[in-house]
Each structure stands twice: as structure tokens, then as C-alpha cells.
Amino acid sequence: MSSEESPFIPGKPASSTPDFDEPQRPQGPPEAKPDQSGPRPTTPTGATSADEQDAQGQQGRYHTTAQGGRLPDTNHSLKAGARGPVLIQDHHLREKITHFDHERIPERVVHARGAAAHGTFVSYGNASSVTKAGFLQAEAETEVFTRFSTVVGSRGSPDVARDTRGFATKFYTSEGVFDLVGNNFPVFFIQDALKFPDIVHAAKPHPDREIPQAQSAHDTFWDFVSLHTEATHHTMWQMSDRAIPRSLRMMEGFGVNTFRVQNSAGETSLVKFHWKPENGVHSLLWEEAQLVNGFDPDFHRRDLADAIEAGAYPRWELGLQVMPDSEDEMFEGIDLLDPTKLVPEELAPVRAVGRLTLDRNPENYFAETEQVAFHPGHLVPGIDVTNDPLLQGRLFSYLDTQLTRLGGPNFSELPINRPRCPVNDMFRDGMHQTAVHQGVAPYKPNSLDGGNPFSTEDEHALIDVPQPVAESVKERRASASFDDHFSQARLFWLSLTGIERQHLADAFIFELGKCYEETIRRREVKNLAAIDRELCETVATGLGLKAPEADDRAPGVTASPALSQIGRRWPVAGRKVGIVASADTPFDQITTVRAAVAEAGMVPLLVAPRGGRLGEGSTSVAVERTYATMRSVEFDAVVLTEGIESSTEVDVLISEAWRHLKAIATCGNAEILLEEPGIGLGDPGIFCSDEPHEATRQVIEALAEHRAWARADM
Ligand code: HDE
Questions:
Q1: Which of 354, 523, 575, 617 could form a disulfide with 636 if both were Cys (CB 3.0 to 4.6 A apart)?
Q2: For the residues 203-216, what does the mean pLDDT come to?
Q3: Which is the catalytic residue, given 75, 76, 102, 111?
Q4: Cα 398 to ligand 1 centroid, rounded to whole Å
Q5: For the structural domain made of 488-563, what CATH number should be given?
Q6: Of the residues 183, 184, 257, 410, which is catalytic?
Q7: Which positions make up the binding site?
Q8: Matching CATH topology for 114-188+229-417 and 488-563?
Q9: What does 439-485 look like in DSSP terms, one character per residue?
Q10: Distance of alpha carbon 48 from its chain centroid, rounded?
């Protein structure tokens, strides 16, 4: 460095004296952030508030070190001359690289891939007869954060793998945090938490080559579930269309385990929690799912964020199935402590008790979606656990896992996990402690801190309903009612329509067809014989195996029609319609179709051969997808306008939309495009009209049933 060169910026002349009197401040007003100087607000824990924490590391207008020292340059490390080696004294270099080196935390051991949103839960006020939980009382409104996830795949795995989906909601109630940590299936693979590592090891990639990613279509999974028949019911759901949701917004949610609730008179009931989506329960087809995973691996994540940003807020009703708190904890012959069993809605109707609206995307994926920590033991007064052995094990696991994942016991101080009510837990110190606790007596009883904090005999969380525990001996055994592994698997099968059954059988054929070991395939087909003859024969035929003898282990089972996804009409808001046009399309056709789609609360996506705009001047419309960037799987329905020509891309679009039972409308002479693939103008879900508005109206009407199911029989 020459003697005239600045010690801070190579090449910049040094000032002769330190510039104390006239600091060189940037001109103009501060750019982005509001002024965050001034005293830091504190929460009752003594920690800085959530808002303040969010801004930590991003305050003021200058780039600084982590210690707040202003930085002149972050492009060049400090070197012994412009071409010389880097000096170890460059603190900025070491601090920046060191922080970067430690940016990753362990991903969740299961449910690693997730997407989340903030929202509000509004109670209908009609649940007080069964629970005193404050957030379910009249006029209660509660801030929530919901995270959806797949189970098996790693953080970077594709969204629409065939898998169970997590559906976890954190209610920041005035009585403390309540977490409803559920799935999109009402049942689980195992009856005892002790088996959880086994099912997860079996479902995860093979330990030698670490393949396949985010799949159950492999030997270890089928080895386990074929041997461990209590998994049969869940496996049926996993092979059903429920395992490939069209959107996270179109899934049901279930608490799975049975909970015990208590009202203010001290009366208890057993309940199962349900989330019912306002948009209906819809799925992709398997071929679509496979295409989506290549075309847009972030399909679900993008869909959720886009919908919220566009104001098409997803909504669910929270429902309760309420069963009497009987001594044997059975209901209509169903053991309520067995998480491989559901209670058919026909036997215990789902009573809607409030509405969840997700209306705000996270601002920072890591801080919120990644660091949120759920726990089925985060309970509020009026909601307690049962002895379901799966739930009991979960009560241990979720706290334990955060210690590794979030690096210590203070994760509830992270902004996303903080209760929105006073916290005075008497916990102290530990890694990543952010609170500055007051007082000298973090123990009870004490006199030095005036006896603070006080215990309450009033409403408290962990209600610990005094349940009698049967006089018993210690033993590793489940009750005999847990031995029935097939009757509800059959109930699920019988509840599905023909096309849903076909999809389910096809999924078995695909998944077992991916297993190398024939013994595994045979063993699973034998299990299917205990569910249904037709299912077993279809799968055996698909695999080239001989169907085993009929097995009548599940006699006298009836259907629960509520489990089928097909046969109802649903709101179409938020669905996506591809409008294919070109520079030759009459412009009013484009505007008419777009307006009709938007008016129905759906998302119009204009597709054209090339990018840019269609139409002239200020009324022109931006092309949202080109032939290079579109694929049929993104659209729920397709409208073909006049002026588009046959091309490979358009032909593939039409044939896929046709095969995937999607509604297709043509305006005017665009119907010619249907000739080549042999699509009849009167076929189900095909709408041709000279009136673009009419063609679009018919498509919207058809979308209420999700797909043109009648085409499946053609
Ligand atoms: Fe979980 N589960 N689980 N699980 N689970 C986790 O906790 C576990 C089970 C569910 O978005 C982990 O924080 C055991 C049933 C969801 O952050 C872990 C058993 C249901 C999520 C864990 C079960 C679930 C998890 C991993 C058997 C549906 C994601 C990371 C006894 C009712 C939550 C974490 C999120 C996450 C353990 C069974 C739902 C390891 C031991 C049944 C939605 O603690």
C-alpha cells in the first residue's frame, strides 16, 4: 500500500487526518427501512418484541459488521497488495464467511419440505358445550400460522410426491400456544410411537445409495408395510388420490389422534379434529403429478403463495367429531385410542366450530417456515391428550427434536414460536438465550422475588383430567381391539367411486412394480386379498402375479360415502385457466374470456407462442406463459381462442388436458384443433361456442366438479 492509499479502501487516497469534524455521510433520505433507533420494546419475558427481532441485522441505512461497525467495501478482501495473499486480520472476511458456513440447520427428520402462511382463526362460538378453550368461545379471533409439508422427502424434494401431507397450525391464543399438528389423512401407519423410527427408516431412501428421494415406491417401504399389517389402512390412503393433492388449499386436515376436551362444568368428551377446505378436496392425477415434479417442483409452494398474494385466501372450517368419554374409550365398536382407525362421519358428524383464513405469506422462509416448532403437547385449558400410545410418544418427540434442529432449549423465544400472551416460565440461560431476565430467584417457592411468579388454580393448560388408570401390570402389549388391521382398509375401499378405486389400484401396481423383490410384491398382494377381491385381482394382474385365495378377515364392513372426493360441487375461486391466443386472435375474445375467468375469482393465464403483449396500446395484455414455459398441468381448464394454429405445443396441451379429464373450451373456429386428436365436440367437458363468454361460462360451471369424470369411462 502506498503511503497515500486509504487503509480501508485499496486505491482510495487516504485523508491526512481522521475525518471527525466533517463525516462523509451519503446524501439524500434513508432508502428502505423505517427508523429503528430508539429504545427496544420488551415483552413480559424481557426479550425484545417480535417486530424488533425481525429487523435485527437489518437496521439503519449502512452496511455494517455484526457488531454494527460501518463497512466501506464488501467486494475485496484485505490483501497484501492487490495481487497478494489475503490477510487473516480481515475480520469482515472471516465474520462473513464464518456466518455463511453455519447458515444451515438440520432439516426436520420428517416433514422437511414445507410451505406456510399466517392467518386468523375465527370461532363460531358454538363449542363451549364441549370445551372451555378460550379460542373456541364466542367472538374469539386468534392469530395463527399454518405449515403444510410432505413427510418423506428432503427440504429440496419435489412438492407433489405421493406422500402424506402434514397440516400443522399454531394458534397464538391468549391462554398460550395451542398446536394442532395433523395430517391430510385421518389415520396413521402405526399404533405405537415405538414403531415410528421403523416406518420412517423404511420409507426414507435406501441407506446405501440414498435413493429414491421422496418416494414410497421402493423395496424397504413395501417390505415394512407388507409385514407390518397395522399400516394397511394408512397405505390405502397413501395409494389413493389423497396422496397427490391438487393444491395445499384443497386438502382436508385431521388431528388423527383422539383428544379429550373439557367444558367449564368439568364435563369431558373425546374429540377428533377436522379441517374442511372451502375449495373442496381435489387431487392431481398420477401422470399429472409426475409431470408437475419436473415442470415445477415447487408447484404446491408456489400455488399457496400466489393464491394468498392474489387475495384468493384459502379457508378451512375447523370441525369436531364429538364422542362420549366412555370408560372403554370405544365408540360404535371403534377403539378411539387406535390411530389406525377413523370414525365415519355418518356415525359422528363433523360439527364446524370456526374458520381459518390464511391471508399473509411469510416474509422470510427460514425465520418463519423453517424455524416454527410445533408440538402436540402445546395445549390450552379445555383440551387434553388421551392415552393413545402414538400420541403419548409424540409428546416426547417434538420437544426433543427441536433441541437438535433449533440448537438448544430456547427455541420458543424465536419470533415465530413466541406465545402472544405473558410468559413467565422460570427457565433460565441455555444456548441462544435472548431474554434478559430480571430478579434473583428463578425458583419456587421463593421470598426474594416476592413469591413471583404465582401458580394458578383457575383455568390452566395441561388440564390433566383425573382419569382413572386401570389397575394393571407393566407390559409391552396392546389391547385386543388393536389387532384388527383390515376392516377399515376395506371401509375406505368400499367408500370410493369406481374411478377413485381404479386410481388406487393403479398406484399399487406402479409402486409395487418399482420393487425389485418379488417376495415383497407377493406378500403385499396377499394383504390386499384381505381387503377386497377386486382390488387384489387388479393389482395381481398388473404385476403379472396369480391372485391369492380370497381372505375374509374383514366381513360385514359398510361404506362411508363422506370419504369419497367425487360427486359434489365446489367453489372454483383460485383455479387456473390457460387461455391460449396469438397475435391473430380477435382482441375482444381475449378480454372477454379473461374478464369472465377473473369475475369467477379464478386466475386467467394468457398463453401465446411468444412473450410480450397481445393487443395494441394501453389496452394490450401481457402474455403470462409462452409455448416454451407452459405445460397443461398448470391449468385446471383450457380455453382455445380463434387464431391459434396447430403446433407440437398446442397439440400436447390439448391431448394432455383431454387425458387428464380437464374442461376444454373453444371459441369460434378453434374447434378445428380438436379434430386431429379425435375429440368429439359433444364429449363430456368439451365446450365449443362462437360466443367466448358462453364457452368460458361452461368451463367455469364444469370446474365445480373439478374434472369431467364422465370422460374416464370413454
Ligand atoms: Fe410427527 N413429527 N410424529 N406426526 N409430525 C414431526 O417434529 C413424530 C405423527 C406431524 O410443520 C417431528 O418438529 C412421532 C402423526 C407434522 O413443523 C418429529 C410420531 C402426525 C409434522 C415428529 C409422529 C404427525 C411432524 C419432526 C409417532 C399426524 C410437521 C420435526 C409417534 C397427526 C410439523 C418436528 C411442522 C413433525 C415425531 C406421528 C404430524 C420428529 C415420534 C400421527 C404435521 O418430532
A1: 575
A2: 97
A3: 111
A4: 7
A5: 1.20.1370.20
A6: 183
A7: 108, 147, 196, 394, 398, 405
A8: no
A9: SS--SSS-STTTTPSPP-SSS-SS----PPPPP----S---GGGG--
A10: 30
Domain locations along the chain: 45-71+89-103, 114-188+229-417, 488-563, 576-713
314 near 352, Cβ under 8 Å? Answer: no
CA 413 – CA 44 distance, rounded (Å): 12
Q: Name the CATH superfamily for 114-188+229-417.
A: Catalase core domain (2.40.180.10)
111 Cα: distance to centroid of ligand 1 (angstroms): 7
- The model's pLDDT over 328-355, given as tens digits with 9 standing for 90+, comes to 999 999 999 999 999 999 999 999 999 9
Detail the residues annotated as belonging to a binding site for heme: 108, 147, 196, 394, 398, 405
pLDDT per position as a tens digit, 686-702? 999 999 999 999 999 99
Secondary structure of residue 292 in the 3-state scheme: helix
Cis peptide before 18 (omega within 30 of 0): no
Q: Residue 327's closest CA among 337, 312, 341?
A: 337
H or E stretch covering 154:
none
Active site residue 111: yes
Instruction: State pLDDT tens for residues 613-622.
Output: 999 888 899 9
ipTM higher than threshold 0.90:
yes
Q: Please tell me whether residue 696 adopts helix, strand or coil conformation.
A: helix
Cβ–ligand 1 distance for 392 under 6 Å, the answer no
Angle, CA 154 vertex, CA 152 and CA 158 arms, to 5°: 85
Label residue 55 by pLDDT band (50, 70, 90).
low
Total count of residues recorded for the chain: 714
| DSSP one-letter string for 608-632 | ESSSSEESSGGG-EE--EETTT--G
Average pLDDT of the chain to the nearest whole number: 92
C-alpha cell of residue 192: 405405537
Question: Containing H/E element for 415?
Answer: none
- The whole-number pLDDT of residue 555 equals 86
pLDDT at residue 40, rounded to an integer: 32
Q: Which residues contact 453 (CB under 8 A, 6 or more apart)?
A: 424, 426, 444
Q: Enter the pTM of the model.
A: 0.92
Environment class of 645 (CB within 10 Å of its CB; exposed 0-12, middle 13-18, buried 19+): exposed
Element (H, E) at 492: helix 487-495
144 - beta bridge partners? 119, 171
pLDDT band per the 50, 70, 90 thresholds, residue 46: very low
Q: Is the CB of 146 under 6 A from ligand 1?
A: no
Backbone angles phi, psi at 51, to 5 degrees: -60, -45
The ligand 1 atom nearest the CA atom of 192: 31
Reading the block at residue 216, the C-alpha cell is 414410497
CATH superfamily, domain 576-713, is Class I glutamine amidotransferase (GATase) domain (3.40.50.880)
Residue 703 gets the label, from left (phi > 0), alpha (psi -120 to 50) or beta, of alpha
Residue 22 is predicted with a pLDDT of 47
CA of 336 to the centre of ligand 1 (A): 20
